[in-house]
C-alpha cells in the first residue's frame, strides 16, 4: 500500500442513545458545533486529506444524513433569488464539486467492524480512511487525517490515530502497545478493544481515524464477535498486524469526544473561543457565567 487514499468511510449507523431525547429524531452526527453538524467536520477533514469519495454507512432511520448531503434545490433557489450569496455558498459547499457521496445501509447494528465491512464493495482494492465523526479533531495546521494519509503514503503501512488517556479510561477505547516511537509513529505490537485498566497493555488509546489497507476486509469477514458482542474493527486490526506493519500515529491536534455530553460542550466552547466572529462575546459570556456562579474569572 503506497497509494494516496481517495475514499473515506463514515460509520454513522449508531443509535446515539447518550443524546436521547435529541437523537430520537436527529442522528448524533447531525448535532452541531456552532453551525456545522459533526459529520461536516469529519467530511471536511477527509476532503482535505485528498478523499473524493465519501461512503456513509447508515441505518434505515438516518435519512437526515443523506438529506444533508443531497442538493437542496428549493433552498438554493430561494437564497439565490434573495441575493444571499454567502449563505448559498455555505449550503453548496456542504459537498464541494468533484466529491461524491455514497450511502450504504448496515441492516443490523453488529459493530464498528461490521459497519466498515459494509463499505467493501465501494472501496474495492485500495487503501482507505475510516473516520468516526464523534471524535472531532481540532488543529490549526493540517487535519489529523491529512497527517496520517501523508504518513501512510510514505510508509505503505496502515496507520491508526492514537492519544494518551488516563489509565482508568482504557475500557472506553481500543488500546495499543507499540515498539518505540520515531517522531509521531510507532509500530503496533498489540491492540485490544476496551480492556479493563488492569489488563490494558498501555494507556495509548485509538482515536476514530484510521488509514487501512484493503486486506482488512477479508480479515473482517472472518472476525467473530468480540467486546460487547460486536464485530470489532480492533480485532481485525489485531489480525492484520500478524501479517504486516500497522503504525500508531500521535496526531497533532486536540480531540473532543463528542460522543459524550461533556465532550460536546468542550468542543462547543473551544470552537466558540476560536471563532472569528464569536470569540469576544463567547469569552465575555463565559466570564459572566462563572462570575455569576461565584467562580473566579478565567485566566
Ligand atoms: C470505537 C473503537 C475504539 C476506539 C473508539 C475511538 O469505539 O471501537 O477502538 O478507541 O471508537 O473513539 P466506540 O467509541 O465506538 O465504542
From TrEMBL:
* This protein's UniProt keywords: Nucleotidyltransferase, Transferase
EC numbers:
2.7.7.9
Per UniProt, residues of the Nucleotidyl transferase domain are: 12-269
Q: Which InterPro entries match?
A: GalU_uridylyltTrfase_bac/arc (IPR005771), NTP_transferase_dom (IPR005835), Nucleotide-diphossugar_trans (IPR029044)
Q: Which reaction does it catalyse?
A: alpha-D-glucose 1-phosphate + UTP + H(+) = UDP-alpha-D-glucose + diphosphate
Q: Does the keyword Nucleotidyltransferase apply?
A: yes
Judged by the first EC level, this protein's enzyme class is transferase
The reply on keyword S-adenosyl-L-methionine is no
Name a single GO biological process. Answer: UDP-alpha-D-glucose metabolic process
Q: Which GO terms describe its molecular function?
A: UTP:glucose-1-phosphate uridylyltransferase activity
- Record-linked Pfam families: NTP_transferase (PF00483)
Family in the record: Belongs to the UDPGP type 2 family.
Q: Which PANTHER family match?
A: UTP--GLUCOSE-1-PHOSPHATE URIDYLYLTRANSFERASE
Q: What does this protein do?
A: May play a role in stationary phase survival.
Q: What is this protein called?
A: UTP--glucose-1-phosphate uridylyltransferase
**What organism does the record attribute this protein to?**
Lysobacter soli
Amino acid at each position: 500500500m503506497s497509494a494516496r487514499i481517495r475514499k473515506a468511510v463514515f460509520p454513522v449507523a449508531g443509535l446515539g442513545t447518550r443524546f436521547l431525547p435529541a437523537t430520537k429524531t436527529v442522528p448524533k452526527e447531525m448535532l452541531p458545533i456552532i453551525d456545522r453538524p459533526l459529520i461536516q467536520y469529519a467530511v471536511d477533514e477527509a476532503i482535505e486529506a485528498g478523499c473524493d469519495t465519501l461512503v456513509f454507512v447508515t441505518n434505515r432511520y438516518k435519512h437526515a444524513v443523506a438529506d444533508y448531503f443531497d442538493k437542496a434545490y428549493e433552498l438554493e433557489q430561494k437564497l439565490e433569488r434573495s441575493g444571499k450569496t454567502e449563505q448559498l455558498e455555505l449550503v453548496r459547499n456542504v459537498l464541494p464539486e468533484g466529491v461524491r457521496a455514497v450511502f450504504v445501509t448496515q441492516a443490523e447494528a453488529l459493530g464498528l467492524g461490521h459497519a466498515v465491512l459494509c463499505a467493501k464493495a465501494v472501496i474495492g482494492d485500495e487503501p482507505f480512511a475510516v473516520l468516526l465523526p464523534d471524535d472531532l479533531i481540532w488543529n490549526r495546521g493540517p487535519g489529523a487525517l491529512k497527517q496520517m494519509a501523508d504518513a501512510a503514503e510514505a510508509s505503505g503501512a496502515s496507520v491508526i490515530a492514537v492519544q494518551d488517556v488516563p489509565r482508568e479510561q482504557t475500557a472506553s477505547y481500543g488500546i495499543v502497545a507499540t515498539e518505540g516511537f520515531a517522531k509521531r509513529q510507532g509500530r503496533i505490537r498489540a491492540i485490544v478493544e476496551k480492556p479493563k485498566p488492569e489488563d490494558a497493555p498501555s494507556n495509548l488509546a485509538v482515536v476514530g481515524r484510521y488509514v487501512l489497507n484493503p486486506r482488512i476486509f477479508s480479515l473482517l469477514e472472518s472476525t467473530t464477535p468480540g467486546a460487547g458482542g460486536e464485530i470489532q474493527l480492533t480485532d481485525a486490526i489485531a489480525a492484520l498486524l500478524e501479517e504486516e506493519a500497522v503504525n500508531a500515529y500521535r496526531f497533532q491536534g486536540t480531540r473532543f469526544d463528542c460522543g459524550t455530553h461533556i465532550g460536546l460542550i468542550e468542543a462547543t466552547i473551544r470552537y466558540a473561543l476560536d471563532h472569528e466572529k464569536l470569540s469576544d462575546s463567547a469569552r465575555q459570556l463565559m466570564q459572566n457565567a462563572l462570575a455569576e456562579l461565584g467562580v473566579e474569572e478565567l485566566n
